[in-house]
Amino acid sequence: MAARVAACTACHGVQGRAGADGYYPRLAGKPQEYLYHQLLNFRDDRRQYRPMTHLLTGLPDDYLREMAAYFSDQQVPYPPPTRAEVSAATLQAGRKLALDGDAARGLPACAACHGAALGGVLPAIPGLLGLPRDYIGSQIGSWKNGLRRAAEPDCMADISNKLTPEDIGALAAWLSSQPVVEPYAPQAADSIRLPVQCGSQAQR
Amino acid sequence: MSLMKKVLSVLLLLVVAAIGGLYWLGTRDDASTGPAAAAADAATLVERGRYLALAGNCMACHTSRGGKTLAGGTPIPTPFGTVYGPNITPDEKTGIGAWTADDFWQALHNGKSRDGTLLYPAFPYTEYTRVTRADSDALYAYLRTVAPVSQPNRPPELEFPYDQRALLAAWRALYFKPGVQEADAGKSVQWNRGRYLVEGLGHCAACHTPRNSLGALRSADTLAGGVIPVLDWYAPPLTNDVETGMGRWSAEDIAALLKTGISKHSSVSGPMAEVVLGSTQHLTDADALAIGVYIKSLPATAASTERSRAAVAPAAMELGGKIYRQQCVQCHQPAGEGSGTAWPALAGNPTVTAPSPVNAIRMVLDGGYAPATAANPRPHGMPPFGQLLNDSDISMLVTYIRNSWGNEAGGVTALEVKRARAASTLN
To answer: Which of A68, B103, B112, B266 is the most exposed place for a label (fewest CB within 10 A)?
Structure first.
């Protein structure tokens, strides 16, 4: 299978351990259904990144599921987190949004869906640690301006629309600077009750 | 009346007559229908129509990426602007639900909409006109069974003067000759079937025949290959030229490529990968072979595209070879011999040695998977290198593979890579 996904690892690194330049995200160990949904989203125009769409155009669902399983199964140690050059107040704001949310603005905590350890929840909610700051920022931004979409109801689009650019910067800074404590893996599917409706968690 | 006035009157009359003649030529309807089909029950007719829709690759333009089947919306880029494939589901208001079989025939055969509006030839009625009335009726029967989708058509975004539909009459007078394909009694049934598919529903010429400045196919170079405008991929000649065309291929090789996307000569990439994916892999073995047989009967017309004239600089060969040994050799092997169909040989590969280097450049820039087909459901993919190598590196690398191991295809410049990179970010 490694040979069949050579086109993926050219950017995402061997075993999907993440690209060298801080943009191509890690694939290794993410929930299989999450990875599978992203492959479908790129292929079917719900996520906009031409190089991904180009590669996936001719590939059927079964094969994409197999690719997702391959990367989901890869066990690769996490590198130490990068230090975000932002103020302590910004980091604190990011931490608060991630762990507590902001009830006054109808914002659930990241941890409410992505798990208390932010390691993700099976079958399709990804972990949020071990990702580059630029990547996190640009993904939330893409949701906000409609370039990234997920199955309806698209809970991340709703949440992203309520986030200000300052919120997004703070979240990206705090999340990307947290160490990953091993073993870092998604929680069981029935271990959490989602505070919002998310189509991707039910999508098959 | 003075002589001058007489001359002017005659000239004016001639101009009016010429315009009238052009208008008549460009809007006339053709009465040929081809042989009738044997009577069939409704289910058989629909099934035949479904198959013909695949053979004609209707979905390529009428089903958008991730969109509802045949509900339209696909952008079709042309040098004159962008047109959008219309909704051809049986929705009454936004689709063709109100159309009769006669209306559908009028579009397919005469290139006119239900109300008589002249259609833009991005809809390849210049080829579809060769389709028989019986096949048109089968297609119509199938389209009636598709789920109706309410999705309004997006109007074309064409530059002036191409947005003036009335001018299409003149274009059609010059370049459109309606008429069903007549069988050549001197040739086999198989050959005639192949020609019918290639020149009709298959509309192979839409990409494999070069176009003139008005977007019309250059009939003198029929199927002699060319760079597809805007998409900027090279559609190779389907003629029997040994160097650039199908001269070394057998009819069976051609059928295998259409059905599986791979062959011992090369595998498909770019727009042809999408054609195999959406259309030709679904052909019956008999139809795929008939196409191969017809293509093998074409003359050995040389490629219409001039070979790259850039010199092969020794320094480019040396540095290109170095990059090859770092990035490519693991799969494509030291002598460019490749390994099975997963890692195609580069030595003697027609994609590599084509007159135009754009396809080889695009493969290095963007990579790409062979299309998944029943015979090759888990294809291998070429990794992209555009994010790793700059234009100069890629020009030297492609120069190296085009001129090593017996290949002698000419040099490639960094400017050519730059242009391909610009095209690749658009489509």
So the answer is: B103
